[in-house]
Amino acid sequence: MYRAISDILVNGVVGMSFFLAILFILCRNSFNPQEKVFGYFLVLNVIFEAIAVISLDWFRVSNNLPGLHLYTLLEFIFILWFSHRNLPILTSKLTRYIFFFGVVFIIDNSILEQNIYTYNSISVTAVKLFTITMSILFFYRVLATKKYSIVEIRPSVYFFTGLFLSGCTSVTWYMYSNKTIELEPILYDQLSILKNSTSFLASLILLTGVFYIIKRKDGDII
Predict the structure, then answer these.
(1) Is residue 212 assigned to a domain?
(2) N or C, which terminus of the chain has less Cβ within 10 Å?
(3) Does 38 fall in a domain?
(4) Greatest alpha-carbon span in the chain
(5) Which of 201, 200, 181 is nearest to 191 (CA)?
(6) What is the pTM of this model?
(7) How far lies 216's CA from each of 29, 150, 213, in Å?
(8) Tens of pLDDT along 112-170?
(9) What is the DSSP letter of 146?
């Protein structure tokens, strides 16, 4: 039963990812420049979800972890890009430094520590922690200053909230991924349900942000 529930949640998260990306593509003109960066990130997620499904189900690839290594690198770049557009503290110079050291760290981990055919738990965990940090900085910006337009910034609140929620749950899972697979099947499935439930909730929060953007042009407020 636990496995069936976990599978349903996984399919729900994947389905929501495709729905979000399709909404962005169809309504991209409603997104402002900084919101479009997050929209591109949604499309990136769908592309790699599709690659994973095709490689595993159609071509029966036994190891698609190289794709995860590439996704981790691109995820870091897009989260940094989106954060740069929303956080004044991330100046262009500081963003370039973070970009350089982050890319070097992820590539170094994939070459020297955890090669592309093994699970890159170190770099995945680091990117999730980076995402959590950027989200906290954004929340601080919202609470500490009133010098912004709520209509413009509200979608980013939804987006960072979804990223924060997903990141907080995923970081522990990925950090101990090599140990969780050794758990008893029923305990593993229960933990999977917890993680996938949170991921689905995060997707719903992102969906709220996207709907707000679509409705915003008519003056609707969520």
Answers:
(1) yes
(2) N
(3) yes
(4) 53
(5) 181
(6) 0.91
(7) 12, 11, 5
(8) 999 999 889 899 999 999 999 999 999 998 888 765 556 567 889 999 999 999 999 88
(9) -
